[in-house]
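Moderator note: this is an archived Q&A kept for reference. The question asked for a predicted structure of one protein chain; the sequence and the answer are reproduced below.
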Amino acid sequence: MFKTRTSKCIYKVVNTIVLFSLLILRTSQASNVSAEEVAQGDILYGVDYASEADAAPVFTDVPYSYWAWEWIETLYWNGVTAGCSTNPPMYCPEDAVTRAQMAVFLERGVHGSDYQPPVVGSSSGFNDVATSYWAAAWIKQLAADGITTGCGGGNYCPEDPVTRAQMAVFLLRAEYGAAYNPPAVGGNTGFNDVSNGYWAAAWIKQLAAEGITTGCGNGNYCPEDPVTRAQMAVFLVRAFYLPTIFHPACGDQNPGDLSEPGNPRNWTQYNALQPQITYDATNFRVFQTEMHNRIVTVAVQKELSLEDEFGIDRWQPEELARFVQKTWGIYWREFGGFPFESYTVVFGKGLSFERGGFGLGFGSSLLNSGWIAHEIYHAWNGNAFRQKNERFWYLEGVTTYYGNRQSTTPFEDSMRTFIGYYLDYYDSGKDRPIGDMSGNDPDYDHQFVAQKGAVIAYLIDLELHKTGHHLGEVSRQLYEKYGILSEGTPSNEEILAVINNVSGSDFTDFFNKYIYGMEKLPVTREQEVIWVCHE
């Protein structure tokens, strides 16, 4: 589950989640990727990132300056829409979405871009939808999936526009299934123009609670307004957690793959360390895709409850798989490659914790996106390279920061929480220098290292942004030097040298104050938290 806005290189973000039964296995040597193949563009979630930054917009009527440009092109690159015209290619963003068009949008969102509904057969199931109607099969399947019962009187009203109230119901049923009912509306709906007694009040409130909508402005929702195709793009990307593409202003979209053969790493030795973790395909739903010449597999136990015990996160198996694949893809781009040819994540109850080689297992019943993203990041930071002498501030602090960046919890909220934790430590006199804290220390406090380390990582990212760079470039250089080229394990001094190299500035004073020393970090509980673009 990932909801993000990416129209600027530094922006506010709404994203996040995660705690769960997780088993992670990374295996095998990286496959051969030639420079020519990289230059031609790797396909990630259907997006050709290599050519996108310099290309013209996909649709002639949706320029880069259009407010919903990235949402609309995200639909296109994910195979959900081809637009309203092919010659010239147009999307018709201001047109209202009809109920027939909505059936196609939703079914592709639920089942994937390659989905084709069963043939319509002898009847569409609705009086006003002939079997020859262009969307008859899609409409029939929408009803079969329990997402619609029509517009009344045995009809579907395929040419009627979809209202924003109707859309709230359609999206949530598509997301959670036919049996889903939202929580009771409670004291108020959160919108001035939606009373508690309005027929879709609970659905509208839940849509907002999930971050799929913020209304139409001025505290209103405009429930009876028709949904435009531009608005539909935003709704669908947020509801189905479609991986968003990135605005050309954020720079090169394809970093190239650093993990090519010819690296001096002893692959045979590392492959021998892989734990032989397997799953029974009869008891798991298995999602597998090839991304950047790597096989990414997600296996979800069929009987596993996919709602965390705090009621924060609810997943469908497909959502969980998409989240893992999306997160892996984002980190691949961050580091510039992945050192093994496959990556497998298994979710199942009763899994005992296991750590060995490049395998991790968790027997928890929790399903938290931030924690999943945290552990995926460890495939690089922790396994491909690791801090010298088990110094954990970069290992755990930076990894926790990245987990927050991918989590479905709003980034501002999670960072303020960690800032609050740190200030509690500081105000109570329990603060400690973090630079030399080791997992081998008898008094090692993992929570403190992860929380203070995440705040420090955030501050470094902000400082790097001032120089036109970001923390991902630091991790990328560490991965290349210490992960791929195997030049030992980075010490604090070597991490500092990489940061200085990336930024062209000297972070020695920062390290002395906040990493080696105990000077209070320059944060407050009320401060504005901003997102640093890593593209």
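Archived answer notes: The longest strand covers residues 284-291.
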